[in-house]
Amino acid sequence: MNDSICLYICKRDEEGALLRYNFDPQACVLTKMGTEDVLRYVACLAINKTYLYTSSLDCAGNNLFSAYSIQHDGKLQLINRQAASGFDATHISLNPQTESLVASDFLASTLLFYGFRSDGGIGQFRQLLQFQDKGAIAGPRQDASHPHCTIAAEGGSILLTADLGCDKLRLLNGTGSVCQISEVTVPAGSGLRHLAVHPTRNVVYAISEISSDIFVFRFNTCGELKLTQTLSNLHCSGRDGSIGGDIAVSPNGKWLAASNRGENNIVLYEIDGNGAIYYYDTVKTDGWARILRFDAASEYLFAVLEEFIDVGAYSFPAERCASTGGIQIFHLDAAQNQFQDTGIRETIPKAYAAAVLDGRK
After folding, report:
1. What is the tens place of the pLDDT at every residue in 227-253?
2. How far apart are CA 34 and CA 269, in angstroms?
3. Which of 254, 258, 251 is nearest to 295 (CA)?
4. φ, ψ of residue 309 in degrees (nearest 5)
5. H or E element at residue 321
6. Which residues contact 121 (CB under 8 A, 6 or more apart)?
7. Which residue, 112, 202, 206, is CA-closest to 158?
């Protein structure tokens, strides 16, 4: 797989499939390779060069984490599964410094921490961190603290958590017994959803679900956290017609992509030398772009579209509810100032979670 890119896509349903695709960046061709496993209601994937981890549900509806080794051809071999407390972790990430898996459990208002075994499997439970703040009550799904996403920064010495329920970005220590160090509150009814850290600067970008805004924060190892920039990510509709999706920073640190679900587009921003962002372009998507991932060369952007489901807390015009799950691929040609749809489509009913492994040297 040294000359190709592996895409792992999960379907979220009772008999959810973990699918594998290969993408040839030279020929711009996507090929389905097969089904790697069957998991119930997968919510999230996390990956490094050797292992893939998934968050799903067991038969009782509780959290179930699975670990796989990635073979030389991209195929997966199950290492182990670990049952966990909680209801449905919306996000999992890896902390390289402490060699741990971090799960954000939206409904239980908790973060779960697990170690890794020597073979890459999920090891012993380490810690549960409970958030007991009152919800902002200013928007949907804000009845209580709801951590939606947690990512590592500074090599893992810092963790950052987006709390959708409380309109807060939390900064935590990433080593030892994890606890909160500082926090910043964003405008009520924003609903922070997903985060992306700049690869070379102490800057973190957040997309809000409810208001579809982009927030830029600066942080340091002393625990200081400051909001420095706020931009609306909506360009074709009002707040009642769309909700924020995902956010991603290109590996070269030059581009930020953020998706809107309902407005159905991806907004691309250029990042300057200080980490500030400036609007660059907007491309349409065929539906609700839930996941965004760049390739290692910062030339392709993979958008995983989720099949529209009744999101309950939101009301959308009928024309904004048309979305079929699948993959849509975009090409970024910075030299030609072009951000274009490649025309590649792959329909995957109930597609929901994704991870990308770039095998090129």
Report:
1. 999 999 998 766 667 999 999 999 999
2. 35
3. 251
4. -125, 165
5. none
6. 67, 79, 80
7. 202
Structure tokens at 296: 């290692």
Rounded distance, CA 173 to CA 158, Å? 5
DSSP structure class, residue 4: S
Q: How would you write 144-170 as a 3-class SS string?
A: ECCEEEEEEEHHHCEEEEEECCCCEEE
161 touches 104 (CB < 8 A): yes
pTM of the model: 0.96
Strand ordering across the sheet containing 44-47: 44-47, 51-57, 63-70, 76-83
Specify the amino acid at residue 39. Answer: L
Query: Is there a contact between 12 and 42 (Cβ–Cβ < 8 Å)?
Result: yes
Q: List, edge to edge, every strand of the sheet that includes 89-95.
A: 89-95, 100-105, 110-116, 122-130
By the 8 A CB rule, do 34 and 20 touch?
yes
Residue 23's DSSP bridge partners are: 5, 30
Report which of 340, 293, 352 is spatially closest to residue 14, judged by C-alpha positions.
352
Three-state DSSP state, 212: coil
Of all residues in the chain, what percent carry a pLDDT higher than 70? Answer: 97
For residue 334, the one-letter residue type is A
What residues form DSSP beta bridges with 76? 70
| Mean pLDDT confidence for 2-25 | 93
Rounded CA-CA distance 104/85 in Å is 12
Among 145, 126, 123, CA closest to 134: 145
Q: Quote the tokens at residue 190.
A: 């924003």
Task: Tally the C-alpha atoms within 13 A of residue 109's C-alpha that lie toward its C-beta.
Answer: 13
Tell me the backbone φ, ψ of residue 329, rounded to 5 degrees.
-120, 135
Q: What is the mean pLDDT of residues 78-86?
A: 94
What DSSP letter does each residue of 82-117 carry, written as one string?
EE-SSS-EEEEEEETTTTEEEEEETTTTEEEEEEE-
